[in-house]
Amino acid sequence: MNSYQPAPDPQRQLAPLAGQTTPDNPWPLRLLAQKMREYVDRMPALWVEAQIMEYKPRPGTRMAFFVIRDTDADVSINVTTFPGVVEAAGPGFEPGARVILQVKPNFWETRGNLSLRAGKILIEGEGDLLAQIEQLRRQLAAEGLFRPEHKVPLPFIPQRVGLICGRNAKAREDVVVNALARWPATQFEIREVAVQGERCVDEVSAAIQELDAHPEVDVIVVTRGGGSVEDLLPFSDERLVRAAFVCRTPLVSAIGHEEDAPLLDLVADYRASTPTDAARRIVPDVVELQTQLQQGMVRLRSAVDRRLARERELLSQLTSRPVMVHPGAPLEQQRQLIAAEQLRLGAALTRRVSREEGLLTGLQSSLRALSPQATLARGYTILRAPGGQIVRSANDLQRGDLLEGVLAEGTFIVKVMGVNPEGTIAPTAPTDADSDPTRL
User: Fold this and answer.
1) What digits encode the pLDDT tens for the residues 253-303?
2) Which residues are within 8 A (CB) of 300 and not within 5 positions of it... i.e. 6 or more apart?
3) What's the pLDDT score for residue 1?
4) Closest by Cα among 112, 88, 93 to 50
5) Which class in CATH covers the domain with range 146-284?
6) Reported pTM
7) Higher pLDDT, 281 or 331
8) pLDDT tens digits for 84-142?
9) SS3 103
10) In what order do the strands lie in the sheet with 402-406?
11) CA-to-CA distance for 3 and 24, rounded, in angstroms?
12) Is 152 in contact with 118 (CB distance < 8 Å)?
């Protein structure tokens, strides 16, 4: 006989997928069972049709066990549920009965057993009612009654709660007690109505309209405990659903248990799984709010302290700067700079004035040197003809001409006694005519 025994290796890496396992790298059985359980756990609850095969009531037990079989094939499976689910199914629940069950598959790893957990059981004939409800659900959904944009948000703290419930119902106590425990100041406007039977639709619809018109009611809760399909059928009635749709006040549906789903749940602004859940949703928890307030105050105080610390640090940095320690230092520095500039400017002006004075003196010297008055001061004479012309050449003179001589100080009259353009001439004795001053 051939047998393959791979060597155990506790450090080997297991294949992540079943299709990747090999003879050298197989899955341990526990991993296969774990994968199967995880796969089954991901399956949603579903409705199945079957026939009851075995059922023996066990009074006093917390669970009910029975076996169901396919109506046409030889396929059976074990079912567990709470005794209350069996009781809600009615007296027709017995071996041989055809039923429709809402189930959730369960896989037990240790024994490798697959079973079903039943949340609701309907005796054959109730399936027709579910089909009618489903048809109405599709019709109303097509009209847009269940669209999210029609949902109205619940108020944070309602002034008054409108409560629609059965007469002396436990659901009423669940809502009131839990709401008051969370928010002691909660006030209620209660309308007790029939929550099953022929009068249920009319009374619940009228109560919704009445509370919707109440000026102090901020939210309306419609609630009742669980029950059979027939018991909850009024809450899927078209008239009641439409009355809830036109309600302007936020509406909370708390019908039955979490697995129950009447059409009122779909049209309501909020669907609570139980009456107690409805109480938790309509009012805040005062203790929780106080805790949040205290935590908020702590966070706010901490934020303020951090901000003050940052501002103090910034202020300390600013005040430690030289300009803040000695605020006059920059002004004194500027004063010194201005004084230095004034000194430099004065020196520059002095140098410029001295330079200009020297230049002016030189120009004055040059001007004096070129000035006729300076020439005259050195002993020279300027001769001018009677017409005032300056005599520059002896060729312009004739013997006997009278000329005006200009000295540095004063003038005089001279008479030309002789002319020699080439050089000097000997003086001649004056005649009487030459001495006549009237000839000038």
Assistant:
1) 999 766 667 899 999 999 998 999 999 999 999 999 899 899 999 999 999
2) none
3) 45
4) 93
5) alpha beta
6) 0.49
7) 281
8) 899 888 877 888 788 999 999 999 998 889 999 999 998 876 556 677 888 999 999 99
9) strand
10) 382-384, 402-406, 411-415
11) 13
12) no
Sequence-distant (6+) residues with CB within 8 A of 168 are: 192
Question: Long-range contacts of range 170-177, CB-CB < 8 Å, 24 or more positions apart?
Answer: 170/225, 170/275, 171/223, 171/224, 171/225, 171/254, 171/275, 172/223, 172/275, 174/223, 174/274, 174/275, 174/276, 174/279, 175/221, 175/223, 175/254, 175/275, 175/276, 175/278, 175/279, 176/279, 177/279
Task: Give the least confident one: 67-71, 76-80, 211-215.
Answer: 67-71
Distance between alpha carbon 86 and the CA centroid of its chain, in Å?
Answer: 54
Strand partners, 411: 406
Q: Are the beta carbons of 418 and 428 closer than 8 angstroms?
A: yes
- The residue type found at 397 is L
Q: What does the alpha-carbon distance between residue 3 and residue 26 come to, in Å, rounded to a whole number?
A: 15
SS3 9: coil
Which tokens is 81 given? Answer: 């549920």
Tokens 């001018």: give the residue.
Answer: 384
Q: For the chain, how many residues are written? A: 440
Chain position carrying tokens 């099953």: 196
Residues facing 77 on adjacent strands: 68
In this predicted structure, which of 26-35, 321-330, 363-372 has the lowest mean pLDDT? Answer: 321-330
Residue 286: C-alpha distances to residues 181, 218, 280, 294, 407 (Å): 9, 18, 11, 12, 129
The DSSP letter of residue 346 is: H
Architecture of domain 25-124: Beta Barrel (2.40)
Range list of β-strands (E), 19-112:
46-55, 64-69, 76-81, 98-108
Kindly list the domain boundaries of the chain, sorted by start residue. Answer: 25-124, 146-284, 371-440
Residue written as token pair 């909850």? 232
Q: What is the largest CA-CA distance in the chain?
A: 194
Which own/partner contact pairs does 344-347 have at CB distance under 8 Å and 24+ positions apart? none
Distance CA 397, CA 391 (A): 8
Beta bridge partners of 100: 49, 122
CB of 185 within 8 A of CB of 285? no
Predicted pLDDT of residue 102: 94
